[in-house]
Amino acid sequence: MSAPAQKPKSDRYEEILEAAAECFQKQGFSATSIDTVARHLGSTKGRVYHYFPSKMDLFNAVRDRAMEIAFDGIRPGYDTDADPIERLRLMSMGHARVMMLRHSYMQVLLDGLQMQRYGATTEFQRQAMARHLAERNAFETMFREVLTLGADQGVMTIGHMSITLQSYLITLNGPVFWYRPRSDGSADNVDAIAHDIVRYAMRGLGIDDNDNTSTISTGA
Fold first, then answer.
1. What angle do CA 38, 18, 72 make, to 5 degrees?
2. 3-state secondary structure (DSSP) of residue 181
């Protein structure tokens, strides 16, 4: 299970994505325009239009990149040859750190997925939404696989899988709603916050992350 293959992009393309992510995060989709992004860049609209013919194209490109970032955050833990608890811990730490370190992208990603409830009005939008939902499902499946292994081995408590999975991921997604990068922040600080989030989430599965052992002898 993996994210779609990434293609190298120019520095200018990346600068536009970064600026757009910040604008969409701060102002929302409706209030952000190509003009807004161009002003944020200190550039012309033409520079943005060279890569993105419409605001929706730009929005979808930011969401695509955000999904790539999210997959990159959890893949090392998912791919490691370790027991389910350690794999889940590493995946969760990677995800929590990404939610803070790539805050604007993650906000846009979650906002975009929320937009599905209102429906898509064009075929282009429907195709983009279907792609993003498929990627989200693939992302969640990676966590589901590890949770299932943990339950099968009796080291995690899983009730209804879908409820447990969504509740777990909501906890990891939490920093999008309350974390704000600080000028005096450090990687160590982010790691400490991520560890607290992950420890809290894993205790809901009967796992004491302090000593990497489970407090529950059998899975549900």
1. 160
2. coil
How far apart CA 87 and CA 141 sit, in angstroms, is 14
Q: What is the pLDDT along the chain (220 residues), one digit of tens a residue?
A: 444 444 556 788 999 999 999 999 999 888 999 999 999 999 999 999 999 999 989 998 999 999 999 999 999 999 999 999 999 999 999 999 999 999 999 999 888 776 655 555 667 777 878 888 899 999 999 999 999 999 999 999 999 999 999 999 999 999 998 998 766 656 678 999 999 999 999 999 999 866 443 333 223 2
Question: 41: which residues sit within 8 A by CB, 6+ positions away?
Answer: 15, 16, 19, 47, 48
Return the CATH number of 62-210, one of 3.40.50.720, 3.40.109.10, 3.40.50.150, 1.10.357.10: 1.10.357.10
- Could you tell me the sign of the dihedral formed by the alpha carbons of 83, 200, 160, 73, in that order? negative
